[in-house]
Amino acid sequence: MQITMVKKRLASGEPCEKCAQTEELLRRRGLWEKIDEVVWAIEGEDDSPGFVIARRHGIDVAPFFVIRDAGGEETVLTSPLRLIRQYFPAAPRTASKPSDEAEPRAENKAESKAEDAVAMAARFERADPIEILRWALGRYGDKCAIAFSGAEDVVLIDMATRIGLPFHVLTLDTGRLHAETYAFLDEVRRRYGVEIEILLPDDEALCDFVGRKGMNSFYQDGHRECCAIRKVAPLRRALRAYQAWTTGQRRDQSPATRAALPVIENDAVHASASGKLLKLNPLAAWSYEQVWAYIRKHAVPYNPLHDADYPSIGCQPCTRAIGPNEHERDGRWWWEHGGTKECGLHVAGDGI
What we know:
The chain is of the alpha/beta class. The protein has 2 domains: 86 residues, Glutaredoxin (3-Layer(aba) Sandwich); 233 residues, HUPs (Rossmann fold). Helix content is 36%, strand content 13%. The protein contains 12 helices and 10 strands. The strands form 2 sheets. A 6-stranded mixed β-sheet has the order 7-6-5-8-10-9. It has a 4-stranded mixed β-sheet with strand order 2-1-3-4, sandwiched between helices. Helix 6 packs across helix 7. It is globular and about 60 Å long.
């Protein structure tokens, strides 16, 4: 087996940021010597060897890996984590780890108890979000799911990729999303080389609901029943397979329901098959401005609807652009007055 890594060199002569991060990850895992060849795609030089290989395989991201087996067949991977899982499953995670990461996973540890979740929240209250995420991924790995839908969630995916530990991504497809949102999901998948688990509503429940009430009954009797079928129930089923999950919620998103949001909590709505489910909100203390500062700094992909005054994006029939003096959640279920502006994913008893 021969592994070729294609890296991008910028016009400044430096490697692209993601290429440098990937090399650092492989070195930490003790795997850099397993890379047989490094080929450069040089910015502004379309005939450089790396760009030639990229065109041959139809790849438009860097870095990526070409694995050639003994028979000459080539496999292309854009994710270093997938490379490690598929070809080096016994490799150590890091050469050295903070003490929290060195602990075994907490399937039956004290952190599953409510009082210890409170203690962990206090411990990490002032921590940088990436440190909260590093602790969670070190403890739970791919038994920790990142729930992905909006800009905040892609910030978490970007951070998780930089950390270099296993994680899982899931997203809800209600069947009523914007075309831009579906394209955005594919862009995130390509950019980070991650698999995204798509959660769909139960066919029988959805057909019964639509048959009884039509496609847009929520304009007359509220969004909760529709959200319960299309969002709450699929997520509840999926999370039973995990021990922890991570959301992009922020306290300033909703003064009515999220003002006291802890960075770590026991999930009051969902549970794992083995009992309590830990819920992490690493961006709880961040503001809208901090989220977008991170996106701009790290060139994180985002839904183009954000540029059209959609700060909070849900299903197409239930989301509109907001005006200059409106709160970011005012574009969600705008025909409803009062209430919590929640679908039931995060607030117990809402949406059921």
